[in-house]
Amino acid sequence: MKKMSILMTSGLFIVICAAVFLQWNAFSEDSGKPAERKEEPSIVASVKVESNQLLVKQIFYGLESNRQYQAVIPSQAVEVKCTDSEENPCEDGSLPKGEKIQFEYILKTGPGLSLLLNEWMIILKEAAVNKTRIEIIDQYNSKGTWAAGLPLKGFKKTELLNYYVFEGVNSTPSLYWQEKPLFKLNEQKGIDYYISKKDQIIYEFDSLGTFSDNHLSVVITEGQRTTHGTGLLLVGNKLTNKELERQLAMALLASKFGTDRGTEGWTLEALTSLVTKLEPETAKSKAMVRELANTLTAEETAAFITYFSKERQLDVRSLDEYLSSIKGMNTKFFLKNSQKGQAGFPMFFTDTRSIIVNGNEKDELEVVIKGEEHLFPLVPTMAALGYKVKTGIDFTVMELSSDSSQYSFNLKNKTFILDGQSFGLLENPFQYLNGEWYVEKRWLHAIFKVEFSETDDRLFLET
Fold first, then answer.
1. Is the pTM of this model over 0.85?
2. How many Å is the maximal CA-CA distance in the chain?
3. 154-197: per-residue pLDDT in tens?
4. 356 lies in a domain?
5. Number of structural domains in the chain
6. Cα dihedral sign, 121-124-128-133
7. 325 and 371 assigned to the same domain
8. Among 240, 238, 221, 152, which residue's Cα sits nearest to residue 191?
9. Does some domain include residue 16?
10. Which helix (H) or strand (E) holds 369?
11. Which domain holds residue 390?
């Protein structure tokens, strides 16, 4: 009887292993099929869940066949293996050329009631991935729920395995698992909610209606803590509706900035404020919102919100380009404010026309338009006109000299001396804006006798 029991146990074990193998093998073969749109780079990633680790097989399809890419390996990935389209190992750690590259690696997880993975996938530099498919095969956790920063396309539960298929437009989606089961709701287009109670109330926010082209997975957790992933948001169930609205808007906007989202904190906060009408939390973002409110009309503000809400991908340059297009003048407002420094950079627009000084085009000159004023950057403009500029330590004295003339300005007293003769000024001809001196167009003519003429695409300065 003991021998018979051992044989029956062994046989049952073999049957179970065979079933697991067949299901895993069939799933892997299906996942190994490339996406139909081969002309665009895409990713298919299979994740097999085991005790304290994830086995990942990540395949890039639709790459440029004659291009050699550079891989960025996540820090938590170990035992990374690389093969080409013919399943030949990558040589000397360098990636092969070809339309397909495959990686296999292990992610150590450890015990716990939940797991959040950010930046866990391999990235190929300069490969613009347009579609990602993640397939999770969980034969270890009989309970719990997986979520990703992608739409859930399919789920199947068997006696041995749990299958998940996520697919969408996100090259580095976050992954999340928790032991307590979650229920998925679609209360607002573009947002998937994962909740622990079926009867939990989820509010639909009108301000987020134009974000339908972007996807966000929102896991409602206990408490007030908020954690942002890529395409995924963990948010506490004790937040107020306004706090939740702010976090949802910021997460949706962050997904549009891709890998640059971490460097655009002030911009994200300012754009979130425009969408939700809630005041930003940082002083710099508050200053940015004030500048936008003072510069844009109500119609322009509404058009701007619609623009950045509907665009799938954003960066500070594209935001500046849109503002430039509606105003007909160039601006670097978001680019300047994305740089380090707590002080907000004001909204400046510059003339789009080429600047011609004494017959020579000067690409380095950008004429700032401030209301009715046209401000020329003092030092490069005067250099183009043949002058050298010196300023005093306290900025109250300024000297400009050329081969034929010598100017000495006392900005405090609003006077200047030209070749030994003193003159008075009704106002200071120079303006100091964000670390740079400017001179207004009319003062260039009145003091330095510069003549102006213009066409639709050029502005001419002559001495």
1. no
2. 122
3. 999 988 899 999 999 888 999 999 999 999 987 778 899 999 88
4. yes
5. 3
6. negative
7. no
8. 152
9. no
10. strand 368-370
11. 351-462
